[in-house]
Specification:
Layout: H1 4-16, H2 20-39, H3 54-75, H4 81-90, H5 99-130, H6 135-166, H7 175-194
Helix pairs in contact: 2-3, 2-4, 3-5, 5-6
Length: 214
């Protein structure tokens, strides 16, 4: 088993190998998870007098649990495959269960977003029917919205099925995933172009507890 220092070094490496936005997201996830661990303690960890107020403590636990869930599956599920594996280890999920980030991101956020695009397309078509002046712009925007919805639906259905069937992680299609993952993709491409000689030596990776479980 790795000691705490070795485990910390390995987790730091998982964070630092990501791009700028990916690093910040992984750091926030680790902070939220450590806060959850503290709040699970009977007195709320180091909350002092507030930890003795059971109502306040229950509210804090509920808010933190919701924040961690949304952050983990919406933001975390939008990361690259490698960063999703890193996030799963940071929050104690385990690398073998990292596919859940992709699965829940697709089902809870991706597919509903695709439905919204289709509804917007129908809405613009309705607006175009109201007046001939708005017909052409509404037709263009409406069909563009449907096209985006179809692409999003296809990608997220594939992500959900592949994650559930093969246990693989995938980044979604969209402006937000591209924005947060672009620095990571650039960093990965730069390392490949420069070659292995310019890579830093990775410390011993933290042992994943899930690897010893069925």
């Amino acid at each position: 088993m790795l000691n705490a220092a070795e485990n910390g070094q390995g987790l730091d490496y998982l964070i630092n190998r990501s791009g700028f936005f990916g690093r910040q997201i992984l750091k926030v996830a680790r902070l939220l998870y450590s806060l959850q661990v503290r709040l699970r303690q009977p007195d709320g960890g180091s909350l002092g007098i507030f930890g003795k107020n059971h109502t306040f403590l229950r509210i804090m636990r509920g808010v933190e649990a919701l924040a961690l869930f949304l952050f983990t599956y919406y933001v975390g599920g939008s990361l690259t495959r490698r960063d999703q594996h890193a996030l799963a280890q940071l929050i104690g999920m385990g690398a073998k269960r990292a596919y859940r980030l992709t699965l829940y991101n697709s089902l809870l956020f991706g597919l509903p977003t695709a439905a919204v695009y289709f509804l917007l397309g129908e809405g613009f078509q309705w607006v175009g029917n109201l007046h001939s002046v708005a017909a052409i712009p509404s037709w263009v925007v409406g069909n563009t919205s449907r096209l985006i919805g179809a692409a999003s639906l296809t990608v997220d259905l594939f992500r959900a099925i592949d994650a559930a069937w093969n246990g693989r992680c995938w980044a979604p299609l969209g402006t937000f995933p591209i924005l947060i993952n672009l620095p990571t993709y650039v960093k990965m491409a730069g390392r490949r172009l420069l070659g292995n000689n310019h890579r830093s030596v990775a410390p011993k990776a933290p042992r994943d507890p899930s690897e010893t479980q069925d």
